[in-house]
Amino acid sequence: MLATTMTRGFTFQPRKHLMMMMSRRSLMITLGSRQQEREPAKLDSLPPEERGRYKVATIPNAICAARIAATPLIGYLVVQHHFTPAFALFTIAGATDLLDGWIARNVPGQKSLLGSVLDPVADKLLISTMFITMTHAGLIPLPLTTIVILRDVCLIAGGFYKRYQVMNPPYSLNRFFNPQVSSMQVVPTMMSKINTVLQLSLVALSLASPVFEFVPAANDAIFALGCATAVTTVYSGLQYASGKAIKKL
């Protein structure tokens, strides 16, 4: 009887100790996996195809930055009624928008998550500046500019809120603007692309009107283009508000 009790005592303790060790080990593994979810891997440890997504120094990003830097100058020229140089610079800015998109799609290693966000930001900043300054110069009606600006403000605020929603804790400014943390990508809808083309076309034609002295019939066509721009602006804004243009990776 004593031997049985001792045997049971000696066999029970190691089993209990083993179970405790296994529980601690599983807890450490769980905590480690959660920590890996919170803290992204270093770029050097990622494969080349993954590392390219998180690049900052790319040619398209540099072109976007140059377009952002040129935006205040173009707006200033419009306010001062220097329409010819403003039209020339705006045309160049539109060409660079096409160029950086082509490079990102066709040149390996030039497509990045930052670029998917920076490119529409540069476009919206340029378009918003042009609408405001051209309304000041009497080239675009105020109601249309109001629609465009309100839509862009709502998109920016909604984008920050969506970023906060998909982001894993802990929260900080450094992690919020780190593309590796809870990566998300902006994917414009077809209606948004159409709206962007219409807005750019409207700005270009309205800015070209005083430069080339369009006839009244051409100005009527510009007015019809403005109506189409207003409709697509509202529709695409509703699509962005529904979250269709932003996805978590």
Automatic annotation (TrEMBL):
Q: Name one GO molecular function term.
A: cardiolipin synthase (CMP-forming)
The cross-references to InterPro entries, in alphabetical order and at most eight, read: CDP-alcohol_PTase-I, CDP-OH_P_trans, CDP-OH_PTrfase_TM_dom
| Location of the protein in the cell | Mitochondrion inner membrane
The EC number of this protein is 2.7.8.41
A single Gene Ontology CC annotation of this entry is:
mitochondrial inner membrane
Pfam families xrefs: CDP-OH_P_transf (PF01066)
> Reaction catalysed by this chain?
a CDP-1,2-diacyl-sn-glycerol + a 1,2-diacyl-sn-glycero-3-phospho-(1'-sn-glycerol) = a cardiolipin + CMP + H(+)
> EC class of this enzyme?
transferase
A GO biological process this protein is involved in? cardiolipin biosynthetic process
- Superkingdom classification of source: Eukaryota
Membrane topology field = Multi-pass membrane protein
**Transmembrane portions of the chain:** 125-150, 197-215, 221-241
The answer to whether the entry has keyword Thylakoid is: no
Keyword annotations for this protein, in alphabetical order, are: Lipid biosynthesis, Lipid metabolism, Membrane, Mitochondrion, Mitochondrion inner membrane, Phospholipid biosynthesis, Phospholipid metabolism, Transferase, Transmembrane, Transmembrane helix
Q: Which family does it belong to?
A: Belongs to the CDP-alcohol phosphatidyltransferase class-I family.
Identify this protein by name.
cardiolipin synthase (CMP-forming)
